[in-house]
């Protein structure tokens, strides 16, 4: 009997195993491949926590794997001292199946370790959980969400005391402690009644949401705008997620009275039944919103992902047609709008700073620098932006103007330390209202920025290497690129940035210099003119993400440059 089969039998023998999990295990009896998939490996605790398919098994999201991760988090906090234990952990959850159960499991496991848990009484956006950690003075936070993944997934994100997702050192420590816990059925946990009686389980007060929304509105609302907000017609969809109430309340409090809801997508729905994917990056996700906006003649369509940390939009162009904008385009528009606002309001306080990731378009960087605003790049992932905000706040050097990434995540106020779909929706509405009051659409502004700063273009391409040898082929392709840097006809390679080696190489001279960002398996190839291509693997899946950024002198040149880069790197990634 294999190790996986032994674990499978152990689970079946548990007297208190929930009936749905038991029935699931009975259905796979004798199916060796399925048993191996569920029990042959543990669900991995990565830098973002856990994320996986829900179901029975050690390699699935269920109350036992959640309990195991939480026990490891409890040990991690205990090792930090009595103060961390006393301050406790804030816990939030989204609309996905089992999210309330998993959130309560976290709370009752922490309580068994003597750690106070603050549990959200209702579904909440991820940024609201980040706000709660900071506002309640907690030592950590846990958000139960799988963001925009398909309905069968759920996840477990861990936050530090500053309200940002944990970084590598904390993740490694929690993972190491988790690996020492072999028997998931022996992990202690209290009943809800016991935890409440001992004062170890407390509901996050309902007033916290009101405080979060009030703070968002105070921080984001543009004092230059007077009565123009009522003239902006908005269509909004939460895509069945947590954004419905917070975003609507923020818009209403800011003065937006002409907001129309996509009624089919308002109610929470863990199946996300009206979309193929609840991901605002996907064109199809906003299709119902676009249709309603066409019927109503609305100016702006906005949609959040299920945990409301990202927002996608569609806006009218000069001809009246609704046009979807990319995360890079919206980020550049936000940077431009906030730079002008900062200038118009007198530029008070600490010098402003803009954060972007190394795979985000350079357009926002060029705009910010033209206004004298400092720009700092981070690795992919908003946790790095959150960490840099905290560090600059501590040493008093800069204050946040904007942080953004290409995957539709924006932050304009450091009241949270993660991307914020409530802030994002409000700043986009403010930006649209401001420009509308001056007779401009966001598409007009974007075209003007292209004409001023260059025709920036960007693209994200996923390369999936199917088959049993997919992971090996992916590793070979990445290694081949390290040995033989990318070549693109007609473009001179200026530098190669290898974040695994933490080294920048200049092929023409052979010179090298160190990279200061943390280790990450990312390679970036920079060509003359500022065009670039980057590639990174997607965990253990046989899939790679390729990012491209160009700056053309015209729309046609931009498209041609993008096509060249995409064809060249795609061929190398597939080992053609």
UniProtKB/TrEMBL annotation:
<keyword id="KW-0119">Carbohydrate metabolism</keyword>
<keyword id="KW-0479">Metal-binding</keyword>
<dbReference type="GO" id="GO:0008973">
    <property type="term" value="F:phosphopentomutase activity"/>
</dbReference>
<keyword id="KW-0597">Phosphoprotein</keyword>
<keyword id="KW-0313">Glucose metabolism</keyword>
<dbReference type="InterPro" id="IPR036900">
    <property type="entry name" value="A-D-PHexomutase_C_sf"/>
</dbReference>
<dbReference type="InterPro" id="IPR005843">
    <property type="entry name" value="A-D-PHexomutase_C"/>
</dbReference>
<dbReference type="InterPro" id="IPR016055">
    <property type="entry name" value="A-D-PHexomutase_a/b/a-I/II/III"/>
</dbReference>
<dbReference type="GO" id="GO:0004614">
    <property type="term" value="F:phosphoglucomutase activity"/>
</dbReference>
<feature type="domain" description="Alpha-D-phosphohexomutase alpha/beta/alpha">
    <location>
        <begin position="211"/>
        <end position="318"/>
    </location>
</feature>
<keyword id="KW-0460">Magnesium</keyword>
<feature type="domain" description="Alpha-D-phosphohexomutase alpha/beta/alpha">
    <location>
        <begin position="327"/>
        <end position="453"/>
    </location>
</feature>
<protein>
    <recommendedName>
        <fullName>phosphoglucomutase (alpha-D-glucose-1,6-bisphosphate-dependent)</fullName>
        <ecNumber>5.4.2.2</ecNumber>
    </recommendedName>
</protein>
<dbReference type="Pfam" id="PF00408">
    <property type="entry name" value="PGM_PMM_IV"/>
</dbReference>
<dbReference type="GO" id="GO:0006166">
    <property type="term" value="P:purine ribonucleoside salvage"/>
</dbReference>
<dbReference type="InterPro" id="IPR005846">
    <property type="entry name" value="A-D-PHexomutase_a/b/a-III"/>
</dbReference>
<dbReference type="Pfam" id="PF02880">
    <property type="entry name" value="PGM_PMM_III"/>
</dbReference>
<keyword id="KW-0413">Isomerase</keyword>
<feature type="domain" description="Alpha-D-phosphohexomutase alpha/beta/alpha">
    <location>
        <begin position="44"/>
        <end position="182"/>
    </location>
</feature>
<dbReference type="InterPro" id="IPR016066">
    <property type="entry name" value="A-D-PHexomutase_CS"/>
</dbReference>
<dbReference type="Pfam" id="PF02878">
    <property type="entry name" value="PGM_PMM_I"/>
</dbReference>
<dbReference type="InterPro" id="IPR005844">
    <property type="entry name" value="A-D-PHexomutase_a/b/a-I"/>
</dbReference>
<comment type="similarity">
    <text>Belongs to the phosphohexose mutase family.</text>
</comment>
<feature type="domain" description="Alpha-D-phosphohexomutase C-terminal">
    <location>
        <begin position="480"/>
        <end position="558"/>
    </location>
</feature>
<dbReference type="GO" id="GO:0000287">
    <property type="term" value="F:magnesium ion binding"/>
</dbReference>
<dbReference type="InterPro" id="IPR005845">
    <property type="entry name" value="A-D-PHexomutase_a/b/a-II"/>
</dbReference>
<dbReference type="GO" id="GO:0006006">
    <property type="term" value="P:glucose metabolic process"/>
</dbReference>
<dbReference type="Pfam" id="PF02879">
    <property type="entry name" value="PGM_PMM_II"/>
</dbReference>
């Amino acid at each position: 009997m294999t190790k996986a089969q032994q674990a499978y039998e152990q689970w079946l023998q548990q007297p208190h195993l929930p009936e749905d999990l038991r029935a699931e295990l009975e259905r796979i009896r004798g199916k060796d491949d399925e048993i191996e998939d569920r029990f042959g490996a543990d669900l991995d605790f990565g830098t973002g926590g856990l994320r996986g398919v829900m179901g029975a098994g050690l390699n699935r999201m269920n109350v036992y794997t959640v309990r195991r991760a939480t026990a490891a988090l409890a040990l991690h906090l205990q090792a930090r001292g009595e103060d961390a234990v006393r301050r406790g952990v804030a816990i939030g959850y989204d609309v996905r199946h089992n999210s309330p159960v998993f959130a309560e499991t976290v709370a009752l496991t922490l309580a068994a370790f003597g750690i106070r848990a603050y549990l959200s009484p209702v579904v909440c956006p991820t940024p609201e959980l980040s706000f709660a950690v900071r506002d309640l003075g907690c030592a950590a936070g846990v958000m139960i969400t799988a963001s925009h993944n398909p309905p069968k997934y759920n996840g477990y994100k861990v936050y530090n005391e500053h309200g940002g997702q944990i970084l590598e050192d904390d993740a490694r420590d929690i993972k190491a402690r988790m690996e020492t816990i072999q028997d998931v059925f022996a992990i202690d946990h209290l009943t809800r009644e016991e935890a409440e009686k001992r004062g170890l389980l407390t509901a996050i007060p309902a007033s916290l949401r009101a405080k979060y929304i009030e703070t968002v509105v105070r921080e984001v609302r543009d004092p230059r705008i007077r009565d123009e907000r009522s003239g902006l017609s908005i269509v909004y969809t939460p895509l069945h997620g947590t954004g419905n109430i917070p975003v609507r309340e923020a818009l209403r409090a800011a003065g937006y009275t002409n907001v129309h809801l996509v009624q089919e997508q308002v109610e929470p729905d863990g199946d996300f039944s009206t979309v193929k994917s609840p991901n605002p990056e996907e064109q199809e996700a906003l299709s119902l919103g676009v249709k309603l906006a066409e019927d109503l003649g609305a100016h702006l369509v906005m949609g959040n992902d299920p945990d409301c940390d990202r927002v996608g939009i569609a806006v009218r162009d000069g001809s009246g047609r609704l046009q979807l904008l990319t995360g890079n385009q919206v980020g550049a528009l936000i940077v431009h709008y906030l730079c002008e606002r900062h200038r118009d309001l007198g530029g008070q306080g600490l010098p402003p700073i803009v954060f972007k990731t190394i795979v985000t378009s350079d357009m926002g960087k060029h705009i910010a620098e033209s206004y004298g605003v400092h720009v700092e790049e981070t690795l992919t992932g908003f946790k790095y932006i959150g960490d840099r905000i905290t560090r600059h706040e501590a040493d008093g050097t800069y204050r946040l103007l904007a942080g953004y990434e290409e995957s539709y995540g924006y932050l304009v106020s450091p009241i949270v330390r993660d991307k914020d779909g409530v802030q994002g929706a409000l700043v986009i509405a403010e930006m649209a209202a401001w420009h509308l009051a001056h007779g401009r659409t966001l598409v007009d502004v974007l075209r003007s920025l292209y004409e001023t700063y260059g025709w920036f273009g960007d693209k994200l391409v996923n390369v999936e290497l199917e088959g049993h040898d997919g992971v090996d082929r992916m590793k070979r392709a990445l290694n081949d690129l390290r040995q033989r840097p990318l070549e693109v006809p007609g473009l001179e390679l200026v530098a190669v940035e290898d974040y695994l080696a933490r080294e920048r190489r200049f092929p023409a001279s052979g010179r090298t210099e160190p990279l200061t960002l943390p280790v990450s398996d990312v390679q970036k190839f920079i060509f003359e003119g500022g065009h670039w291509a980057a590639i990174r693997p997607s965990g253990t899946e046989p899939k790679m993400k390729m990012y491209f950024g160009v700056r053309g002198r015209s729309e046609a040149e931009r498209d041609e440059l993008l096509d060249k880069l995409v064809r060249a790197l795609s061929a190398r990634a597939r080992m053609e």
